Automatic annotation (TrEMBL):
<feature type="domain" description="Amine oxidase">
    <location>
        <begin position="56"/>
        <end position="385"/>
    </location>
</feature>
<dbReference type="InterPro" id="IPR002937">
    <property type="entry name" value="Amino_oxidase"/>
</dbReference>
<protein>
    <submittedName>
        <fullName>NAD(P)-binding Rossmann-like domain protein</fullName>
    </submittedName>
</protein>
<dbReference type="InterPro" id="IPR036188">
    <property type="entry name" value="FAD/NAD-bd_sf"/>
</dbReference>
<dbReference type="InterPro" id="IPR050703">
    <property type="entry name" value="Flavin_MAO"/>
</dbReference>
<dbReference type="Pfam" id="PF01593">
    <property type="entry name" value="Amino_oxidase"/>
</dbReference>
<dbReference type="GO" id="GO:0016491">
    <property type="term" value="F:oxidoreductase activity"/>
</dbReference>
<comment type="similarity">
    <text>Belongs to the flavin monoamine oxidase family.</text>
</comment>
């Protein structure tokens, strides 16, 4: 899910397209480089821009601005950069992404940046089997033709309605809207499996307008970054120019005066700039004092926004319980999505990843390691993978 962006302008505003740097992936990642100051040779910064948040959006923003010679003050509330991207290097040589893992085919900005930074990628197309009462192989499970026709018509309708109508549709859950339009309960459950990995929540919790807009060109997962997603955040940090980073100092207020913006942090530090760009999650905006105040629409948006609940874990196994390459499957058990998470070719240890979202998150978050292994074992058993799980570590 993308972070919302708020942009505050001085008398000489800079124009930055939100899609230029937010259309990446959400994120977290690299440990503190306290006091880092990276400056381009022979450059004399013309302006100072304050960037709030050191996630992937904040890093990319700073990267773009610094390249133009603008001085950047990047403020991060924690001791690490990258947001929700975090990669663990296992002793087996596999890289385990605890946060964002795949890059979608439609993420042209992300793919362009990866090439620009000299990173390498590997192909991994998600083509998942399903256990929903019975085992169904990839390509054999989908909604009925009638339901697909309903969906196609609704996508076309959404593209034609005006903004006022879209706002009304935004207040209705996707699940309830499709039920009203005549889609069967069976097909709604199949759609829930199909889209749960992307949204990280049930269709009952998602805006009808949001999902219908996405379905016009729905993302397809097909790429991983070699060395894990944290390679991207590290490469961005090492490529920053004209940038000073403040760690472990949350922002408490943003004051927009005549010709400048002043940001005050929890330590009492005051930073002045000609503009301020916030890449913070929307639900953090209301914890900051803004002057002038955020307008009603921004406040309501920050209060209404709901972030995905996703639980992710990995089992290191002595032997793979699956028989096909690029194994992945959805199931109706607590282990909602399981897959071959190995990144090292011919690794002796095999890696099984599990992602559970929505209400399943609460189940996994309160489970012991033994219970998590049992949930995964039951899911594999339903999929016909009956080998004993020889777990080396979790």
């Amino acid at each position: 899910m993308e972070h919302n962006l708020s942009k505050f302008k001085s008398d000489n505003p800079m124009k930055l397209s939100r899609s230029e740097f937010i259309k990446l992936l959400t994120a977290a990642g690299i440990s503190g480089f306290s006091g880092i100051k990276l400056r381009a040779q022979g450059m004399s910064p013309r302006k100072t821009v304050i960037v709030l948040g050191g996630g992937i959006a904040g890093l990319y923003t700073s990267y773009l601005l610094g390249k133009t010679g603008i001085k950047v003050q990047l403020i991060e509330a924690t001791d690490r950069l990258g947001g929700r991207i975090r990669t663990v290097a296992d002793v087996s040589g596999n890289f385990l992404d605890l946060g964002a893992e795949w890059i979608q085919a439609e993420h042209k900005t992300a793919k362009s940046l990866i090439r620009e930074l000299g990173l390498k990628t590997t192909d991994f197309e998600v083509q998942s089997d399903l256990f929903f009462g019975s085992y169904r192989k990839f390509g054999t499970w989908d909604i009925s033709l009638k339901s697909q026709e309903i969906l196609n018509k609704l996508v076309q309708m959404n593209a034609k309605i005006n903004s006022s109508q879209q706002q009304e549709l935004d207040r209705i859950s996707f699940y309830n809207f499709l039920t009203y339009q005549g889609m069967t309960s069976e097909d709604l459950k199949l759609l829930n499996f199909k889209y749960s990995l992307y949204y990280g929540d049930s269709l009952r919790s998602l805006s009808a307008q949001k999902v219908l807009s996405d379905l016009a060109n729905f993302p397809k997962y097909d790429t991983r970054v070699e060395g894990g997603m944290e390679s991207l955040t590290k490469a961005l940090v090492l490529s920053l120019e004209n940038t000073e980073v403040t760690f472990m100092d949350p922002v408490v207020s943003v004051f927009q005066g005549e010709g400048k913006v002043t940001v005050t942090t929890a330590s009492g530090k005051r930073i002045e700039g000609s503009a301020c760009i916030s890449t913070l999650p929307a639900n953090q905006l209301t914890s900051i004092q803004w002057e002038p105040e955020l307008d009603k629409e921004k406040k309501l948006s920050a209060l209404r926004i709901r972030y995905s609940r996703i639980y992710k874990t990995f089992l290191m196994l002595r032997e793979a319980p699956w028989t096909k390459g690029n194994f992945s499957a959805y199931s109706d058990s607590a282990a909602g999505f399981i897959y071959d998470a190995g990144t090292k070719t011919n690794s002796e240890d095999k890696v099984l990843g599990m992602i559970s979202s929505g209400d399943r998150y609460d189940v996994l978050a309160s489970s012991t390691d033994a219970m998590k292994v049992e949930y995964i074992r039951l899911a594999l058993e339903c999929l016909g993978q009956n080998k004993d799980l020889q777990v080396l570590r979790i």
